[in-house]
């Protein structure tokens, strides 16, 4: 996991906040990942890194979400880091593939965000996730499948997200779209 810890540290250090919520996230992540020994594994404690894929169609008008069985909300595909993951981008793409069946890649210099969110008791020993979300563009005609971790997988208009999303999720989508359009 040391390569992943170094990748998280690098991404946090290189993150360029563009607004107040991003500045707050950057400072928060810096307090966890100021060195290469931050909490990257769920075994590192109740607050640890995760990776996710914020997936958009090529027109940037739709996003791919999964209905999370444990959380009972619509959210981007993502999850815990595994020892086999070579990087945060690899972990995000693995989670995308596992949770939706979509195989994708990211371009060099990919857009990403930082999101620290608390979790309910339904998530067991995990108290919060320090999520690094990687922007991914895929064809909206790609075949989708539902995994054991979710109840549904569906494309949603970015300006008409479902009501059942985590607090702050719509803002996260908007900020990522701003990064992609810049």
Description:
The chain is an alpha+beta fold and 182 residues long. It has one domain (2-181): Nucleoside Triphosphate Pyrophosphohydrolase. Helices cover 29% and strands 26% of the residues. It is built from four helices and seven strands. The chain has helices at residues 2-14, 20-32, 88-100, 169-181; strands at 47-56, 62-68, 73-75, 78-80, 112-118, 128-137, 150-157. Strands 1, 2, 3, 4, 5, 6 and 7 form a seven-stranded mixed beta sheet that branches. The longest helix is centred in the first third of the chain and has 13 residues, at 2-14. The chain is globular and about 40 Å long. The termini are far apart.
How does CATH name the architecture?
Alpha-Beta Complex
Strand fraction band?
A: 25-35%
Characterize the overall form.
globular
Give me the secondary-structure category.
Answer: alpha+beta
CATH topology name, in short, is: Nucleoside Triphosphate Pyrophosphohydrolase
Number of helices: 4
Q: Please give the alpha-carbon distance between the first and last residues.
A: 33 Å
Give a count of the beta strands, DSSP E runs of length 2 or more. 7
The CATH homologous superfamily? Nucleoside Triphosphate Pyrophosphohydrolase
What letter string, H or E per element, gives the SSE order? HHEEEEHEEEH
Mean pLDDT: 91
Q: So what's the CATH class?
A: Alpha Beta
Number of domains: 1
Helical proportion, percent range: 25-40%
Unreliable stretches (pLDDT < 50, length at least 5) are: none
Radius of gyration: 15 Å
């Amino acid at each position: 996991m040391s390569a992943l810890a170094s990748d998280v540290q690098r991404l946090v250090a290189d993150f360029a906040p563009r607004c107040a919520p991003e500045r707050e996230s950057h400072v928060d992540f810096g307090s966890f990942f100021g060195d290469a020994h931050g909490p990257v594994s769920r075994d590192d404690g109740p607050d640890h890194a995760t990776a996710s894929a914020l997936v958009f169609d090529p027109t940037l008008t739709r996003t791919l979400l999964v209905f999370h069985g444990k959380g009972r909300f619509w959210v981007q595909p993502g999850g815990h880091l595994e020892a086999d993951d070579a990087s945060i981008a690899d972990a995000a793409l693995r989670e995308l593939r596992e949770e939706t069946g979509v195989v994708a890649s990211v371009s060099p210099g990919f857009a990403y965000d930082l999101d620290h969110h608390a979790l309910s008791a339904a998530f067991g020993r995990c108290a919060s996730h320090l999520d690094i979300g990687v922007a991914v563009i895929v064809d909206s005609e790609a075949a989708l499948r539902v995994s054991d971790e979710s109840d549904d997988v569906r494309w949603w208009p970015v300006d008409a997200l479902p009501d059942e999303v985590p607090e702050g999720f719509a803002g996260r989508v908007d900020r990522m779209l701003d990064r992609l359009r810049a």
